[in-house]
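Final report, closing paragraph on structural work. Over the funding period we assembled a curated collection of sequence-structure pairs, and we close with a single example.
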Amino acid sequence: MLKKERSHIALFLSEVPFFSEVSQTSLMHLCEEAVKETYISGNRIFQKGDSGEEMYVLLSGRVRVHDKQHVYDYLSKGDCFGEYAIIDSEVRSASITTEETAEVLKIARHHVLNLMKTDSGFAQGILAVMIKRHRELDVIQERLAVSKQEVELANAKMSGLIDGAMDAIVMFNSEFRIVLTNPSAELLLENNDVLQRNVLFFMDEDSAAMIKGIVQTNIEDSTKKLNTYLPKVIKVIGSNETETLNEGTISNYGNGAAVFYTLILRNLTDRLQAEDTINLLTTQTQYLEEEIKKLTNDYGILTEDKSMKTVLDLIHQVATTDATALITGETGTGKELVARAIHQESSRRDQPLIRINCGAIPANLIESELFGHEKGAFTGATISRKGRFLLADKGTIFLDEIGEMPLELQPKLLRVIQEGEFDPVGSSTTIKVDVRIIAATHRDLLQHAKDGKFREDLYYRLNVFPIEIPALRVRGNDINLIAAEMLKQFSIKLNKPQPILSAADKKIFTAYNWPGNVRELQNLIERAVIVSQKGKIDWKRIVPSKQGKINLQDDKEVLERVWTSQEIINLEKENILRALRQTKWRISGKTGAAQLLQLPPTTLASKIKAHGIERPI
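Its predicted structure, as stored:
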């Protein structure tokens, strides 16, 4: 049927007692599969003994409920019949025949059951009606004149539906005395003898006050129908003092002195725990996505050099253990690459590798970053946060630039190494973790300790298995191996023809001292590929001279080329990014990017903002 017609019928159904507790949205879903049928006077809609797979709603006309010549009742517009078909597929207990032309809405049992599974609002609405009908069975018995056995059977069906519900159902009177519960409610309340007990005694103070307020408001305005979602989470305290958080609905039935309230509660504890796990996994995913991005700039450990092969042997030896490793070497030698290799060869390879640069995070934030914090632990802590040690549980944490860690925080790190536990900022709860620690530094940590800038006991705990990475300048032909691989990768990334290194080019590479090691080589090759023409590069004008200057001024082809404004903007942005990466995103100071670019720090800050450059988290 058309949407307009479905809307009209849904509105009509909202006035039908059987669907009075169901929302308009859920009724629209119900109408999607319902079918309108017309029967002329004297037609048999179904007869006693037929199998029951549908229920019917009279849209117009009049029918009689009978068994042969015995008439039980007459039904008219807005009445339902065959409702038990939604509970089971037992045969019909009576016949239905039209007294006049009648239009009915036929609703299939399987569609109702599917809605009860997928639409919690529809299920709760139907359950509320079923509960009301459960209380009206005696009246139904007199009105339909059915046998006691049939009433007991119908009662058993209704009770089965209520008792089988996974949600807790509690019915209480206006004095808050419990008059009906289902097994799920008894499980939630941790008590199977709760009848006539005060339902508020099973709630904390705030939840009890909320329920009491809703009921009292309804009593004061008895003309208003109560059927609403609870505005807040209900904390239920069972007889064994188990606390659970629940969402739910409350509705009422009856009038005058006999008013009953139906509370349907759904336990949120499992869902909240699942959400907490999802949040943890989401945070892990964010970290891992950032790490995956960094992997696109890693080229594997390529080596022919004996000293670097010794490093590979050390990696193989330590990877199979959980020993703490300390990786040392000059800036840019590939300490993080070695840490990743250790993790990938370890038994923890399927767990996260969490990286943190101790020198890139302000001293007042690094404790929270490592160990997490509770909400309100300090100004700006509006939510609780899990630290990277917890994210690395069962995996590996890589503490880069460990020599920059604040001295006052080092005892807490020592505790994690020795005892595998820590306390988040603002919390008195101790958290146990199983984390493999790999640290790296370009400093002489022992001398750093003697100077009073690093704890000596922490140094010895970190230096269980030292690995020293040789500088690029002493690795011989490794420079050319790495350069060739980088040329290949950047050519693909920048969609440029791949330059090939000649023997003369290789001599230029091995002759240079490479103070910035592999990182400097990477930045230089990326810049060279950008300015390359048809796969040709004059490396004499690209590789820094002994004085450390870039020799582009003699490149006639580059000088004579007319660059577009956008190309110049892109080149400037890439150049600023390389400077920021090389200086670990420091802008000012002697080791800052502004000094490297020979720009005032304020000018560099303006350019960073203009180019939309943001520091990776």
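The first helix runs from residue 3 to 13. The two ends are 53 Å apart (CA to CA). We thank the funder for supporting this effort.
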